[in-house]
């Protein structure tokens, strides 16, 4: 900054060239800070993507005849049928498996939406997109509900 006598705070004379150099240095410092912030955000998003990829959820049928573990992307990792489930008719067991798989997939998708909202904020466009895609891909098993919200 220039004082009334034309000198800067450090006692040196200010010139248009010095002003331009200081402005350029300030602009570069601002750009460097923005780059560092973007890199940190990118690292956080990469970490979130890794977390989402490994999220799983388990669902059980109402009476515990079957249980299913699924990843947030929908991949089924494990299906277990208890002795009680083995006693069911094929039609009933098939329906329980179908519903329980859908429930496990939906729970895992909800976990991904929730984790994304924790990291990026509930108003993030990415979270909104993830919520919409999860609702479309994994509607509620027995109710057909497609409203994915936050817990």
TrEMBL record:
<protein>
    <recommendedName>
        <fullName>YbaB/EbfC DNA-binding family protein</fullName>
    </recommendedName>
</protein>
<dbReference type="Pfam" id="PF02575">
    <property type="entry name" value="YbaB_DNA_bd"/>
</dbReference>
<dbReference type="InterPro" id="IPR004401">
    <property type="entry name" value="YbaB/EbfC"/>
</dbReference>
<feature type="compositionally biased region" description="Polar residues">
    <location>
        <begin position="1"/>
        <end position="18"/>
    </location>
</feature>
<dbReference type="GO" id="GO:0003677">
    <property type="term" value="F:DNA binding"/>
</dbReference>
<feature type="region of interest" description="Disordered">
    <location>
        <begin position="1"/>
        <end position="25"/>
    </location>
</feature>
<dbReference type="InterPro" id="IPR036894">
    <property type="entry name" value="YbaB-like_sf"/>
</dbReference>
